[in-house]
Design brief:
The chain has 138 residues and is mainly alpha-helical. The protein is 42% helix and 9% strand. The strands form 2 sheets. A 3-stranded antiparallel β-sheet has the order 4-3-5, with no helix packed on it. It starts with a strand and ends in a 9-residue tail after the last strand.
Length: 138
């Protein structure tokens, strides 16, 4: 089963690619965690200087939140104390990170509505786009 990574999941992973903390979209929680830890250990002045404006979905006033976002995403997706979705840390995530479906931006509320639909309908909805370089994914 594949899942769609919408909203924060998409924005965080694409930010990591944009600022070169990962070369491609992260494939495991360990990669997201490592990139987040690397970001969180950087001096704030360096983050402001080097990363402001590098990612369209991360304006300068949102930069300071990306460190927390990485920890939140790992906690939400992992098996951390039974609170997360239960994805294995070292396994490839069965997640496709997307920003748009059929040209429409998808946020978490729309994603929740889509996830509650009949599973057979999903292939008709998923004309996905959006890696950091704008190429389509399926």
């Amino acid at each position: 089963m594949r899942f769609l990574g919408l909203s924060l999941l998409h924005h965080l992973t694409n930010f990591m690619v944009s600022v070169h903390h990962v070369e491609t979209l992260p494939k495991s929680l360990r990669e997201i965690d490592a990139a987040g830890r690397q970001l969180c250990h950087l001096p704030w002045k360096k983050v402001e200087k080097e990363f402001a404006g590098r990612d369209a979905n991360t304006p300068a006033d949102r930069l300071q939140g990306r460190c927390f976002d990485s920890a939140l995403v790992v906690a939400l997706l992992s098996r951390s104390d039974g609170l997360g979705y239960g994805f294995e840390t070292d396994r490839e995530l069965p997640i496709t990170f997307v920003e748009k479906m059929h040209g429409l931006e998808v946020d978490w509320a729309l994603g929740a509505a889509i996830s509650s639909m009949e599973p057979k309908m999903l292939p008709y909805l998923v004309g996905l786009s959006s890696t950091a370089d704008g190429t389509k994914t399926q």
